[in-house]
Amino acid sequence: MPDLVLISDSSMFGEDIPSICYGLxxxxxxxxxxTGPNKDLHSGSFxxxxxxxxxxxxxxxxxxxxxNGRVTIPGFYDxxxxxxxxxxxxxxxxxxxxRKYAAELGVKQLYGEKGFTTLERLWARPTLxxxxxxxxxxxxxxxxxxxxKASAKISMRLVPDQSSAKIAKLFERHIKKIAPKTIQVxxxxxxxxxxxxxxxxxxxxxxxxxxxxxGFGKTPLYQREGGSIPIVVQFKQLLGIDTVxxxxxxxxxxxHAPDEFINLDHFYGGIQTAxxxxxxxxSHMAGSRKKR
Amino acid sequence: MPDLVLISDSSMFGEDIPSICYGLxxxxxxxxxxTGPNKDLHSGSFxxxxxxxxxxxxxxxxxxxxxNGRVTIPGFYDxxxxxxxxxxxxxxxxxxxxRKYAAELGVKQLYGEKGFTTLERLWARPTLxxxxxxxxxxxxxxxxxxxxKASAKISMRLVPDQSSAKIAKLFERHIKKIAPKTIQVxxxxxxxxxxxxxxxxxxxxxxxxxxxxxGFGKTPLYQREGGSIPIVVQFKQLLGIDTVxxxxxxxxxxxHAPDEFINLDHFYGGIQTAxxxxxxxxSHMAGSRKKR
Lengths: 292, 292
Prior knowledge:
The structure is a homodimer.
Chain A: E1 5-7, E2 19-24, E3 26-35, E4 41-42, H1 43-46, H2 53-62, H3 85-93, H4 98-105, H5 118-124, E5 127-136, E6 145-146, E7 149-158, H6 164-178, E8 184-193, E9 196-197, H7 203-216, E10 221-225, H8 230-239, E11 243-245, H9 264-291
């Protein structure tokens, strides 16, 4: 039986900023279909008589966040593990500018749950996003249809200790509750995955921190990742072991694209770090066992 | 210079129910595009940082009707000509069942502006309909995109004395006003047409009523139509003359479809009515001239 798993599939925080990723978000991916009239209608002859399914779907989606950017599904936040003071402090040490980030993304103003920094929202808070919407006439020009159906794909990113299956149920129940009687709604679950976290004082993480310090000559920073690596959850569930995410790439290196590259300094720093990691690990494991 | 125009492009109210159509709605057809981030993003890595354009568009659309089904655009109803008591009474004489209509359309409950009957809403009240919406991933399965853009086609049916150009301006101003600072919105006008009404005491209409009575052996009912026949507006604007809409088809005869048909009784009744119309017209025109 192994003591832990090491995966190099995460990024460093930025150029020459070694970091250790200790948390991943999970996912609940749903699809909603709203049906109004039993066929597409002429919006002149029928407009004013029935609830337009695009309008009804929009009204449902608009109710899923409150004015503070919080998800309104009852129970949605119940199982969210609060950030520790140590984690919040660690995130604050990361070099970050909301203004620069907003400019890079081309938005005048960021948006999200009030009371949390951008990195906290991205890594440690659950979110609800519309991934797709469609209904009616979507081609060039004007067609006066009052459509029969409108649909949306909506997914939620989860954090420990939320459960993907439980969130799917809460979502479905809430949508059915707020759907007006003028339309019919179906909700189905397309996909799910659990969130994962490796405690920052676990031996794998403390060994990785010591190794990064030696490999890069700098104290690494702690970060999480907003996306998901499903196998990490399976290692924990099936084998009961933590995964250390020790990656050396950078976010702008076109991962998975034909022109992917890696900074050579990070490549050599990564080799050093890997060697140090295996040197460090036994004493950290021993220390951990002693504590127990 | 002609005295009036006669068009047979409207329907009778139903089988063996001769009716005269004296009003058509106009149209203002708009398109909205909401842009959030400058490119499609990964909903895991970025979910929680920016306002999702599908969400923002849904929030905009959800604000366009109030709880009473009224359009919330300031000034939208300012130029609406109120129904006369005579018109409301005439509509009430038409054979109508909301329950039967809802069942035919497959909805549990009708929807629309409170304080008006279904026929009033369809024929004599302006409405706002979403004709199309699209954004993000709309294929089979789950793709975790946080899209850069979301769009909708929205049209409004107009009644006398609303102006298509004025309503387009009010719409654009309102959308820009309610759009949040977290996104950018563009609004464009795709198409417009004016509403039309032919007074029910005008000589063409009174002659048509007398002709229908003789042609079908029944007093005809008055109705309007929720759709538009743009040429009617142009005859009024360019020639200053009213149009009489004297049609003999029925709503369920598959107009414009390959298997279009016409009830033979209505066909022969229509021939009789047309003959009577031209016999009746001179005296009604003379009576009208005398009144002036």
